[in-house]
Amino acid sequence: MWIALSDPNGSHFDPKGLGAAPDAPDMIATGPDAILPRGTLMIETRLPPINRPRGLLTYDRGGRIPLHLSLQALPGGGLVFVLDQDGEMLHGSINATETGRTDILRVTYSWDAPARRGRLALERPEDNVVHMVDVHQPKPLPLSDIRALIGQAGGARMAPEVLFVAVSTSIEPVGPMPSLAPMTPVATPEGYRAAGRLRRGDLVRCANGQDLPVLQRIERVVPAAGSFRPLRLKAPYFDLTSDIEMAAFQRVVLRGSVVEYMFGTEAVLVPATHLTGAKSAAAALPVESGPLVRYVQLLMPGNEALVAAGTCVESLYIGRIRRRPERLEASLLAGCDRSRLPEHARPVHRVLPPFEAVVLAETRAA
Fold this sequence. Notes:
This protein is mainly beta. Helices cover 10% and strands 40% of the residues. The chain has 5 helices and 28 strands. The protein starts with a strand and ends with a helix.
């Protein structure tokens, strides 16, 4: 349950849970000494062009039991996360030499003090790269520190590049994420059906003309910010018969003579975020759930593209996660039989970098 969110549009904190009904009961204690024994702190940020280390988020609280938290950008496209609670330090980093240059990185720190375990994950939302560090005997976070980190109690310094800071009372999964609105119409042999109503074993008609079974449907509620911010692709662009909404990192299949001429291939994959500079796509209106949004996705045998309202979108790409038990256990696919999960060696089509993607989108929308 998400209880706190800070993004450029403001700061939200609700002990009932974000998006809960006004008369719902508090789900956590809220007294002056209240703590969160189990939860997740998620930070998503853009990487600034710098030639020296730069602080993105810094928070220091003194007193009898001091706490220091910082997120620092490194030259060349890296991040360093540090959490020091009463002299016990947690440190994790990710850099461009390990992941390839990217624009956005996400930090997910989860702790379960009663179970005496936790983890720090650093990942890039655009693909399947995740670095995880196990945390032993993590300490609970005071609620006063959580409110300070989202800008409601002072003390935290946040750079403009930080896209959002969010806190959940659960151990949130990392890795492959759903990215389609539940009502997205997906082609099946019987016609279009909402993605959120498809189940394991249902047949869908893929972009290659084959009818293949859904292996898993995954879904998740996330903050409607950063790479999770809903975007709307507008009909009739991209061969759409109706508008559809998706997360910024959802990849769309673009094909045609322009694609063949510009890139020498039949089709390419373009993250939706790179389509918003054209009149064919824009940020969606605020969702009914307020600061949260629900997404779904379908896992297919070979990462086949789905036909959604006339256009083609990538299905869930999971890489070779079944070979990494620790990553599988930390993901939304935890609990699935490893032997029944597919392996996706690489995306079906070439993924365009930002500049090429924007040029193509503007050419297609002209």
